[in-house]
From TrEMBL:
<feature type="region of interest" description="Disordered">
    <location>
        <begin position="1"/>
        <end position="59"/>
    </location>
</feature>
<feature type="domain" description="TM2">
    <location>
        <begin position="246"/>
        <end position="295"/>
    </location>
</feature>
<keyword id="KW-0472">Membrane</keyword>
<feature type="domain" description="TM2">
    <location>
        <begin position="321"/>
        <end position="362"/>
    </location>
</feature>
<keyword id="KW-0812">Transmembrane</keyword>
<comment type="similarity">
    <text>Belongs to the TM2 family.</text>
</comment>
<feature type="transmembrane region" description="Helical">
    <location>
        <begin position="209"/>
        <end position="229"/>
    </location>
</feature>
<dbReference type="GO" id="GO:0016020">
    <property type="term" value="C:membrane"/>
</dbReference>
<keyword id="KW-1133">Transmembrane helix</keyword>
<feature type="transmembrane region" description="Helical">
    <location>
        <begin position="186"/>
        <end position="203"/>
    </location>
</feature>
<feature type="transmembrane region" description="Helical">
    <location>
        <begin position="115"/>
        <end position="132"/>
    </location>
</feature>
<feature type="transmembrane region" description="Helical">
    <location>
        <begin position="138"/>
        <end position="157"/>
    </location>
</feature>
<feature type="domain" description="TM2">
    <location>
        <begin position="187"/>
        <end position="228"/>
    </location>
</feature>
<feature type="transmembrane region" description="Helical">
    <location>
        <begin position="321"/>
        <end position="338"/>
    </location>
</feature>
<feature type="domain" description="TM2">
    <location>
        <begin position="112"/>
        <end position="157"/>
    </location>
</feature>
<feature type="transmembrane region" description="Helical">
    <location>
        <begin position="281"/>
        <end position="301"/>
    </location>
</feature>
<feature type="transmembrane region" description="Helical">
    <location>
        <begin position="344"/>
        <end position="363"/>
    </location>
</feature>
């Protein structure tokens, strides 16, 4: 009795998303139609009523495994040398294959001998820098003829370092290493290109670079100072956390010691505009203040950086007062500085009480500075303003600028408080309660009584 073999629907791979497993999806090298499979390449389930073997048949090394019941399932090859590769191709995990087996990175082969050959023959045009993947340096050498030959001579001794650095950057590419400034590169740019600020442009000190370009390295003095300050420049340029508002020691030193200090450039840089203008008109207070600032500029720098976080920065300092006392104390400049304008005018017209008051102030200068700072603290405590010389409304109906924490929406009326009683932080005590007399109500009541008595 002949029995027709019913064509079964194509089975789907259990791990796929319902896609039919056709013969095109079989891994290469596997038998497309194993023994006992239907024309579509799938093993047929046993017919109804057929005798099932007690033990499963011997399975092939790889291919489709016929379970005891149900549809066949794919078994990955275990002993084949290309088993893992076939599994990846079958499951569509080619991206995992690329991730687990990355392609070998191409290494840049740099030879020290070739670098020396290029440097000796064409080094004045930067050929060795182009060879070492330093195109900017190559262009700089090309247009400046090897930094007028000085850079070419220095490269004779430092070329092994450049070759080693190129190999390290090729084997361990990191963006942070590429942006890192090198001390040897800075010194090569400093001599002789530092006279026009090339090393400052390299270190991203654009303002100093422009100043050096316009003043020829600040008459050469700033260029000489940089020879000793170069490690500090490189350290600041490579620091991760750069505070742009913080004043730098190197910049202050260059501006104070160089001839620009005679014009008060370091005072302008440290936001001491009053002293900067004074140095402009007195040529560094006749050169005395300029020389004194050579030794006290670290103190001025620390004072300027500290003033950013202080509650108020209008305190007077003893060194500034003595600097104004000699030689301008005969005209009362130290009194103007200490907010004693009346005494300043008196000294100006009497030439310091004929020099007697000028000598007395030498002994009592510390007391004058302490009294001035005490007055400033009291004003800050009362008004909350750190601006010396400003006026604050104190009486009813007086207008003027309001201190912090107050608002004056109606001119002519005393400003109302916004953030609690008192302007100093932490003083939130409320004023004593009182009952103000309602003047308009009394006037209205008395007028009504008079009107009623007249009609009666």
């Amino acid at each position: 009795m002949s029995t027709e073999i019913e064509t079964q629907p194509q089975c789907t791979d259990p791990g796929s998303d319902g896609q039919q497993a056709t013969t095109d999806q079989f891994p290469p090298g596997l038998p497309v139609n194993p023994q006992g499979a239907n024309p579509n390449g799938h093993l047929s389930p046993p017919l109804h009523g057929a005798h099932l073997p007690a033990q499963p048949r011997s399975l092939p090394q790889y291919g489709y495994q016929q379970p005891q019941y149900g549809y066949p399932q794919y078994v990955s090859p275990t002993n084949s040398p290309d088993s893992q590769k076939l599994m990846w191709e079958y499951e569509g995990n080619s991206h995992n294959h690329a991730a687990m087996c990355p392609e070998p990175t191409s290494r840049i082969r740099v030879s020290l001998t070739e670098a020396y050959l290029l440097m000796i023959v064409l080094g004045i045009f930067g050929a060795h820098h182009f060879y070492l993947k330093r195109p900017r340096w190559g262009l700089l050498y090309c247009f400046t003829f090897g930094l007028l030959g000085a850079g070419w001579l220095i490269d004779i001794f430092r070329l092994p370092v450049l070759v080693s650095r190129c190999k390290n950057e090729a084997s361990h590419p990191e963006p942070s290493l590429a942006k890192k400034k090198r001390l040897d590169d800075v010194y090569v740019l400093w001599f002789p290109g530092g006279l026009i600020g090339l090393h400052h442009f390299y270190l991203n000190n654009i303002k100093l670079g422009i100043l050096y370009l316009c003043t020829f390295g600040i008459c050469g003095i700033g260029w000489l100072i940089d020879a000793f300050l170069m490690p500090y420049h490189v350290k600041i340029a490579n620091s991760d956390n750069q505070d742009t508002t913080k004043k730098r020691f190197t910049t202050t030193c260059i501006l104070a010691i160089s001839p620009t200090g005679l014009l008060g450039a370091h005072h302008y840089y440290l936001n001491r505009f009053g002293f900067g203008r004074l140095y402009n008109f007195t040529f560094g207070i006749f050169g005395i203040g300029y020389i004194v600032d050579w030794f006290r500029f670290p103190v001025l720098l620390k004072r300027s950086n500290t003033a950013r976080t202080m509650c108020h920065s209008s305190h007077k300092h003893l060194d500034d007062a003595y600097l104004l006392w000699f030689p301008l104390g005969f005209l009362g400049f130290h009194h103007f500085y200490l907010n004693r304008r009346g005494w300043g005018l008196l000294y100006m017209f009497t030439f310091g009480f004929l020099g007697i008051g000028w000598l007395v102030d030498l002994c009592r200068m510390r007391t004058l500075v302490e009294n001035c700072n005490r007055d400033i603290d009291e004003r800050v405590h009362l008004t909350g303003s750190n601006i010396v010389g400003g006026h604050v409304p104190l009486n009813y109906g007086q207008t003027g600028p309001c201190p912090p924490g107050y608002s004056n929406q109606h001119p002519g009326i005393y400003p109302t408080q916004q953030n609690g009683y008192g302007s100093v932080p932490g003083m939130n005590d409320q004023p004593p309660s009182y009952e103000a007399a309602s003047v308009p109500t009394k006037v209205k009541w008395s007028s009504a009584r008079i009107f009623s008595q007249v009609h009666l």
